[in-house]
Structure prediction request, 316 residues.
Amino acid sequence: MDIMTTVNGNEHVKHGLVPMKNSKLLQLKVDHLYHIALDTEQHDLQTMFGDVKFVCFGGQVSRMERFTSFVIQELGLQPGTGDTPTNYAAGTDRYALYKAGPVLAVSHGIGIPSLSVVFNEILKLVHYAKCTDVTFFRIGTCGGVGLEPGTVVLTEKAVDGAFQPFLSTTILGKKVQRPAYVEKPLLEELLSCSENTDDFKTVTGTTMCTDDFYEGQARLDGAFCDYDEDDKMKFLNNVKANGVCNIEMESLGFLAMCNHAGVPGAVACVTLLDRLKGDFVSTDFSLLKSWQHRAQKLVLRFIKRRITQQNRHKNG
Prediction:
């Protein structure tokens, strides 16, 4: 296996290849990407995935399947056989992995722990496949803070439930902190994909990433709740005062891992409700589905623009 490594903190990057920071992988005869049912022996990963330029993560399997169909349609690709896109991770029931031309679509489940597992294996996959100039996205849903439901939020930086702008993880019994932010040029490029004719707003701001959906996000309807409405509103108003635009459960881990890996990454999420006005998503289901499409649409505009630029460069 050909591994690009980091030596003394310096990444060895050749022709835009995704670097691999774990030199111990060199000792493996076979690397089993267990949770996505692929490995470096039985699968020709470079042939299967070598043309990937964009990796899009999202929570639900069904959402990423629909996103893949949307990509196929918008890029004018030839659909595969069958009624649905091929799930390359079908050998496991943990995650789903779809491909449409240069776009890889991955389900990550709920929360940072679930995301972390598949992120590790996808990062190794794009390295083994010798993918070049790859950009990662998380596309999802969130609760807004003082924003109209249906607004798309592009994360500038992510903070945890205590407003710390880094992922704090425990490795070998010690706390390790990794910053979680989006590089400004990538953020500005993604924001420029919004259009005046859009029937929704696109904003940038700080995203709060919590450990759970209920107590961590000051909801009153969980199985546990040792605070009242006044406590909740005091916290949420403080959240807004600290510049937080939205709340979800993955951005902190996603951006921290992108930064640590040296891979450009961005987060685009649509708000399903304004948390200053309630805890419950009560909007009509069909409308919610159309809102979920908004962040996908924005990221796909970015992808189409990048593909056009790459084609011009090739034909230069």
Remarks:
- Confidence is low (pLDDT under 50) at residues 1-13.
- The two ends are 33 Å apart (CA to CA).
- The longest helix spans residues 285-315.
